[in-house]
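Milestone M4 deliverable, item 7.
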Amino acid sequence: MGLALLGGAAGAAADSDVIVDDPPVLATAAVRDGTPVDGIPSGPMVADGYHIHAHLNVFVNGVGVWVPAGVGVTRPIVLDPLRHDPVVKAAKGYYWLHTHDESGVIHAEAPEKHAFTLGQFFDVWGQPLSRHQVGPAKGDVTVLVDGVKFPDDPRQVPITPHAVIQLNVGKDVAFLPYDFPAPF
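Output delivered:
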């Protein structure tokens, strides 16, 4: 996944040039000031303690959309200048639930083991989540966790080590597994 430059020849900018995410970002990350959200604080990166990763896939009417970089990251942020896609290298603060890039990997980091939910992640993101809405996308929502249909409220999906969570809004899409890179 990357950015596509539309219109104009390579190396030459034109007024009609438009940079478009491919696929699009579902919704940008809320700009947070460090105030706790759902009891989840913001502060320096947690060096020791509880540190897990889960993955979130989102499809809207059959089309994959990105979870943005910088969810749960307070400004100012430092992006990796060597990457063409946005990757957060440093920030003023991180909520215990956050993203560094657009891969869909949710980082859950706290001083000790904590039971996080997808609803908390969406609240930190500043986006709604229900049986009929995922961010700005509205329609019936099907939830799959590790390939198994989750019958309850999507806000209650637990964020557990290496869970692969998929939200289908509208049209159902077959479960898409995710291979966590080392050392995740």
